[in-house]
Structure formats: C-alpha cells, structure tokens
Design brief:
CATH superfamily of the largest domain: Thiolase/Chalcone synthase
CATH architecture of the largest domain: 3-Layer(aba) Sandwich
Oligomer: single chain
CATH class of the largest domain: Alpha Beta
Shape: globular
Strand order of the largest sheet: 3-2-4-5-1-6-10-9-7-8
Radius of gyration: 20 Å
Number of helices: 11
Largest sheet: 10 strands, mixed
Length: 353
Amino acid sequence: MSAVYINGAACISVQDTLNEKFFQNLKPENSSQVLKAIEPNYKEFIPPAASRRMSKTVKMSSVASKYALQEAGIENPDAIIVGTGIGCSQDSEKFLKNVLDNNEEFLTPTYFIQSTHNTVAGQIALGLQCHAYNFTYVNTSSSLEFSFLDAKLQINDGEAENVLVGSTDEQTERTMELYQLNKTIKKEENLPVDYLHSTTDGVIWGEGASFFVLGKDKTENSYAQLKDIQISNRLDLDETQQFIEDFLAKNNLSTQHIDAVILGFSGDAKSDVYYTKAMSMFENSALLYYKHLSGEFNTASGFSTFMACHILKKQEIPEVMMINNVKKESIKNILLYNHLGGNDHSLVLLGKA
C-alpha cells in the first residue's frame, strides 16, 4: 500500500490542544481518578438550539472536525469515518434512566435516536451536507486504527481523495462509577500515579476527540505520512517483540530506522509490561509516553497520533513526553504502540511528510 498524507489534525483533550501554543503548555495529570476534557466555547461553532440537543462527544467532534477540515482546506470530504469505543454513552444513560423512571412508558425518542454510536459521524455529515461514505468503527481501543485502515484503503483504491477520520469518547457518571467498581479506574489510595513505574492496577480515565484529514496528495500543510497500520486483538507478552519486528520488516525497516517510539504507558502495572517489553528493542530511539497528559480511554491513541503529527512537523519533542534522553537531529519515522488493558494491540507507522 502506498502512503497517504495527514493534511489536517485537530484535537480536543484534557490538554488545551486547540490553542496554538499548546506544545509548550502541556501539563501532566497524575492525581485525579478521572480527567475532563478542556472544551471550547461551543457557541462560536454550533447554534445554541442545536447545541442543547447534542451530547458532549458530538459537540467535541463537530468542533474538532471543523478545525481539521479548515487546516486541510477541504470543504467536503469524500468520506467520513469515525472510531469510538463507547460512543454516545451520555445519551444512552439518559435513555435508560428514562426507561426506569417512567416504567417504560411515555418515552421521548430523542435520547434513543442520539444514543447510537454512529450519531457522531451522522451529525458531522449533516453539518457539512456531505452525502458520501459514512462509517463508524466500534472496536474498543483500536477503533481509530481501523478507521485509518479503511481510509487508507479507500485512497489507495482510488475511491476517495480526501477522507475525514476521527476518534471520540466521552465520560458519563454511571460508567465511571462502574469502572471504579470493577477496578478499571485506580483506587484513590493509589494516587498520585507514577506512569512509568506503577506497581498498582487500574488507570486514570480521560476523554477527548481527535480528527484528521487524510489525503492522496501532499500539501504545504501536510503533517505526516501515514505509512502503515497493524492490529492484533490478542497478543502474548513474549510475542510482543516479534509482532513489532514483523511489522517493521514488512515496511523494510529495522528498529534502527525508528527515530521515536510513542508508548501507551497508562499506570496499569498488569498491562504496561507490554510497553516495557517493546521499549527494550529501541535502545537508539527517543522513547515517549503520553497518557499522563491525556488519561487512558478507548480512543486515547487519537491524542498520541495528534502529538506525533506535531512532532514530525515541528521536528521537536516536548520534554514532558520523554522517557529517555535520546535526542535526534531529524525525526523521520515514528512508531506508535497502544493497547487497552492488554487487549487490542495496534501499531501505527508515521513518516515525515
């Protein structure tokens, strides 16, 4: 498959990533169980009447997608593809609460209509009046990677030239309570967390929306080349290095060719061992981590892809992301490795545009 270009990138996250100077103002978060996204003033982007009926994930995605399309100079993409782990869970919760509160009678359909996972892609298309291919992937932590793969195939097959690809996930009160009960989220007594040397299980949960415009052609605004993607649902710990080596070999690369590796250390001792295993392969690469900035969530890899795009374009790495002290004169290839709780492993290879 030939490479495609990332020509626009926007992100709403726990950091102030819509701000142009966000690169210098990244603040690690390690002492709350749940991290909230910094949201823009939606009135500037969405009519108030429409905004009232939208859930947080739809609003975040609408704004992030507008920014990404503006950057790429695209008014109407040839396809809209969104990846999400838990979709519009706020509206799902509201609908189920109404079912219980009203004894399954006299229910308004609004929350039900807007609770489906594909609401985000649908609302973006309505806003743009875009009648093209519209698809939503719901594959836990590899939802964005599947979306990228679909977009790449469409561009390589000549079915599309510019594709809007995004990932989004929001928090809801009840779901966060359940995550605390089943120990997905760290216990209070285990905070603050040392992301790289954690001895306790569980994570700090975040949220956010990241959108990218993939294009067939390079432009002067291009951030990066999306070279390849590999996804594996299950992986034994001792298969990790082979998984990475095979992926690099497929792209005619060795570990020496990788200038930076972005790893998804989440502070969950049980599943972070995969990253430790991967880390030992890249002695001469800059090793980075990011979930101390974004929190862990189903589509946290959207944040790391966004950061990787900026690192490739600016040719500099924020100090706050560094695990080791390896400095590179030029950054050509970045490898992103992510999974959620030891499942759904993904590798994404980005190159300098």
